[in-house]
């Protein structure tokens, strides 16, 4: 029987590439999405990957949603915490709502999704928790105090939980993508992208979502069993942590 992998924010952007790559690698994949029904339906039609709608910022919704996925596909053995949002603003203009929305999704969302799958992984003595953090959680970023704090928090979460999972056969790792060619980049003004961001990337291009997906497939595999608590950077040399 194939292992079950659950990917949050798994129908668009980096998440869609991860869901597809895991399916291709033989996993039985479920993908969550928060809002865009049309895109999710189109993704399911195209890939055959089942999508489920709930908000990772809502703990009870995560418990119920995971219950439904496990009823449909079986116990979740690989969890990919990919769902994330930006609400960029210079700090002097950032509202409490912008701070809270990003913390609730990008940091608390990781707790909300991991907590319900953890007891089953401990019992079965196998699990993979892979959280998509960000280069901006490592180096900080103009206009992203909220996002950088949440993504740095994801790395701390990963290092702490890896210690708890180690004896139970559960690995817990983070991946820090750099700037990847997805819809999220469309919020960045063209001038900032061309004059500020691109010149900082030594390989001279944005990354592709597939380049992150391949790292996820590796960390999910049995071959990666000795890798836990690690932070894998994939950023074209932009920041060498
Ligand atoms: N680095 C340095 N300077 C930046 C900057 C950046 N990334 N982004 C904006 N600035 C500068 C602008 O060039 C502008 O400078 P000038 O006034 O000299 O022209 C100034 O900041 C804008 O200041 P404002 O107070 O007018 O800002 P605003 O209220 O209009 O907000 C903004 C604009 C939200 C900051 C917008 O410029 C923006 O979105 N910038 C991009 C921020 C960014 O890089 N976010 C990362 C997104 S990618 C991501 O999050 C995925 C990941 O994990 C890698």
Question: What tags apply to this protein structure?
Answer:
7-stranded parallel beta sheet; 8 helices; alpha/beta; Rossmann fold; binds acetoacetyl-coenzyme A; 241 residues
Could you provide a short overview of the structure?
Helices cover 47% and strands 16% of the residues. It has helices spanning 13-24, 37-47, 59-73, 96-124, 135-139, 145-165, 190-197, 209-220; strands at residues 4-7, 28-33, 50-53, 76-81, 127-132, 170-177, 231-234. It starts with a strand and ends in a 7-residue tail after the last strand.
What does this structure look like?
This protein is of the alpha/beta class and 241 residues long. 47% of the residues lie in helices and 16% in strands. The chain has helices at 13-24, 37-47, 59-73, 96-124, 135-139, 145-165, 190-197, 209-220, and strands spanning 4-7, 28-33, 50-53, 76-81, 127-132, 170-177, 231-234. The protein binds acetoacetyl-coenzyme A (CAA). Acetoacetyl-coenzyme A binds at residues 86, 88-90, 93, 134-136, 141-144, 147, 178-179, 184, 187-189, 192, 196.
Q: Which consecutive residue ranges, at least 5 long each, have pLDDT under 50?
A: none
Q: What is the number of strand segments?
A: 7
How many distinct domains? 1
Largest sheet composition: 7 strands, parallel
Level-1 CATH class name: Alpha Beta
Task: Tell me the CATH topology.
Answer: Rossmann fold
**Second rung of CATH, namely the architecture:** 3-Layer(aba) Sandwich
């Amino acid at each position: 029987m194939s292992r079950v992998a659950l990917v949050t924010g798994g129908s668009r952007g980096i998440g869609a590439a991860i869901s597809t790559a895991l399916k291709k690698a033989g996993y039985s994949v479920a993908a969550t999405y928060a809002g865009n029904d049309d895109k999710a339906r189109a993704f399911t039609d195209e890939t055959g990957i089942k999508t489920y709608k709930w908000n990772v910022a809502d703990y009870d919704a995560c418990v119920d949603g995971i219950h439904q996925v496990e009823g449909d596909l079986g116990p979740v053995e690989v969890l990919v915490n990919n769902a994330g949002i930006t609400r960029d603003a210079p700090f002097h203009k950032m509202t409490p709502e912008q701070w809270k929305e990003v913390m609730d999704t990008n940091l608390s969302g990781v707790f909300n999704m991991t907590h319900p799958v953890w007891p089953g992984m401990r019992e079965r003595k196998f699990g993979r928790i892979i959280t998509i953090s960000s280069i901006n959680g490592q180096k900080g970023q103009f206009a992203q105090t909220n996002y950088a704090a949440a993504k740095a928090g994801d790395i701390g979460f990963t290092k702490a939980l890896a210690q708890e999972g180690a004896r139970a056969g559960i690995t817990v790792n983070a991946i820090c993508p750099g700037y990847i060619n997805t819809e999220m980049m469309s919020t960045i003004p063209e001038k900032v992208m061309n004059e500020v961001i691109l010149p900082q990337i030594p390989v001279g291009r944005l990354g592709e979502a597939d380049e992150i997906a391949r790292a996820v497939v590796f960390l999910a595999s049995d071959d990666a069993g000795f890798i836990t608590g690690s932070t894998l950077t994939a950023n074209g040399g932009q920041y060498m942590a």
